[in-house]
Design goal:
Elements: E1 2-5, E2 16-19, E3 28-29, E4 44-50, H1 60-73, E5 74-85, H2 90-93, H3 104-108, H4 112-121, H5 128-132, E6 136-145, H6 149-154, H7 160-169, E7 174-183, H8 207-213
Parallel strand pairs: 1-2, 1-4, 2-3, 4-5
Antiparallel strand pairs: 5-7, 6-7
């Protein structure tokens, strides 16, 4: 099963298109803030959440419940493709239905490999993967830059260091995050085999990741 959660008017053939509102004519009407979700354990191979998570989980316990349900219904190595607005872009700030900041780094807290390293090295990062009994691995991250930053960077009129400095100082530099995470089941399976690394998903802390993965020309997605 492949789920397109919070589909709105953006539907995909051969996917189960899901939305809270029947006016969208989804395949299934489901409120993702109500638990449990109506799908069995380990039933889902792929999930799309395009401009959805920022609308969910104003209360922390609800958001964490969404994360637990997402993990429950996905099988091992399921791909979850998430697009969210950058929290310092006007697209996020101007919409009163945007209630939750979501970043790639926040999913790093849901990696039990990361959690294990933090605990063994005395770091203060919250080991959410262990607390929630979930395990996700961040696979790819890209950043869509806002105009004119995208054009200036593409034309090599700005260096990576210039962009890093701009992100620290200004809003509306990065428009959105586009990232893929994969489920690891059973949770904690990779801890012994891997050398976990803390996921750095901001320009300030990971210039190498930005240089490798930034996609300045990525088109913006409409809000759900």
């Amino acid at each position: 099963m492949r789920l397109n959660l919070g589909c709105g008017g953006r539907k995909f053939p051969d996917w189960t298109n899901v939305d809270k509102f029947a006016t969208c004519s989804p395949d299934q009407v489901v409120d993702l803030e109500q638990f449990p979700w109506p799908w069995p354990d380990d039933a889902v191979s792929e999930v799309r959440m395009y401009h959805v998570l920022e609308h969910l989980g104003a209360q922390t316990e609800i958001y964490l419940g969404i994360i637990k349900e997402l993990y429950r219904v996905c099988r091992d190595n399921a791909a979850i493709h998430i697009i969210v607005p950058h929290p310092r872009h006007d697209d996020f700030l101007n919409d009163p239905t945007h209630v939750r900041v979501v970043t790639p780094a926040s999913f790093g807290l849901l990696s039990q490999a990361n959690n294990h390293k933090w605990l063994t090295t005395g770091m203060a990062n919250t080991p959410l993967g262990l607390y929630l009994k979930v395990d996700f691995a961040l696979e790819t991250v890209s950043y869509a830059l806002e105009d004119p930053w995208d054009k200036l960077f593409e034309q090599k009129k700005l260096t990576l260091a210039d962009l890093q400095h701009a992100v620290r100082l200004y809003n509306n530099v990065i428009k959105q995050f586009d990232f893929v995470v994969r489920t690891i089941k059973p949770a904690g399976r990779t801890i012994a085999a891997a050398t976990p690394q803390i996921i750095e998903a901001t320009l300030a802390s990971s210039s190498a990741a930005l240089d490798a993965r930034m996609e300045p020309s990525a088109p913006p997605s409409e809000n759900a």
